[in-house]
Amino acid sequence: MLNQLSRVLLDATVMDPKGLAGFGAGLAIGLGALGTTIGIGLAAGRALEGAARQPEMFSKLQTMLLISIVFLESIAIYSLVVSLLLIFTF
Q: What is the pLDDT of residues 13-57, one digit of tens each?
């Protein structure tokens, strides 16, 4: 089964540029969203851990967490833009 799938994917006569663009768009948004969610989860977990250890630092940790979440979400937006460009330019 895997051999047949690889043969179909690697066959130059079967490859359609629009299909490959759709495949690339799916990979772009999927991996971008996966990386973003992992990053936000790790950042939130570490912020909660830090707040549990030093409750007086909670306001500073919250500010830094929100800034880091904004930067992490920008990665997801960039991957969305890339996937939309891949879909609508071919």
A: 567 788 888 989 999 999 999 999 999 999 999 999 999 999 999
Q: What is the three-state SS of the chain?
A: CHHHHHHHHHCCCCCCHHHHHHHHHHHHHHHHHHHHHHHHHHHHHHHHHHHHHCHHHHHHHHHHHHHHHHHHHHHHHHHHHHHHHHHHHC
Domain tally, the chain:
1
CATH number of the domain bearing residue 33: 1.20.20.10
Helical (H) or strand (E) element with 4: helix 2-10
